[in-house]
Amino acid sequence: MRPIALALLAAPFALGACATVPAEVPAGEGSCFAERVNPWIGHVATPQYRADIAKATGAETIRWLYPDSAMTMDYRPDRLNVKLDKNTDVIRSASCG
After folding, report:
1. Are 79 and 61 in contact (CB under 8 A)?
2. I need a labelling partner for 25 at 20 to 30 A (CA). Which of 3, 7, 18, 96 fits?
3. What is the rounded average pLDDT of the residues 11-26?
4. Is-contact 65 45, C-beta < 8 A?
5. Which residues form the signal peptide (predicted)?
6. Mean pLDDT, to the nearest integer, of 30-43?
7. Distance between CA 51 and CA 46 in Å, rounded?
8. Can you tell me whether residue 95 is helix, strand or coil?
9. H/E element holding 5?
10. What is the pLDDT of residues 48-58, one digit of tens each?
11. What is 12-76 written as a DSSP string?
12. CA 24 to chain centroid
């Protein structure tokens, strides 16, 4: 009985050492450059502004999100999230992810 109890006590520590640490993305690499959206914050997201934002940020993927939008929660540093007002399409904020 005693060896089993010792094994059970040691197991969490042994398994904890096996955990992997996610790789960090080097600065500037894979970034969506969300700060480049600042000139458009407070403006209506017209098709032209959407194209301008895509060009200015160079983001591989852009999500145009409303407060009640369904979205995945996985973090992707190359993806730009642009949050819009539900009623007016005014750009409220931008972030990577």
Report:
1. yes
2. 18
3. 52
4. no
5. 1-19
6. 93
7. 9
8. strand
9. helix 2-16
10. 999 999 999 99
11. HHHHHTTPPPPPPPPTTSS---GGGGGGGTTSB--HHHHHHHHHHH--SEEEEE-TT--------
12. 13
Q: What tokens appear for 93 in the block?
A: 């904020």
Q: Model-level pTM? A: 0.68
Per-residue DSSP letters for 66-89?
-TT--------TTEEEEEE-TTT-
Q: Name the architecture of domain 25-96.
A: 2-Layer Sandwich (3.30)
91: number of Cβ within 10 Å: 23
d(CA 95, CA 34): 5
Q: How far is the C-alpha of 32 from the C-alpha of 54, rounded, in Å?
A: 10
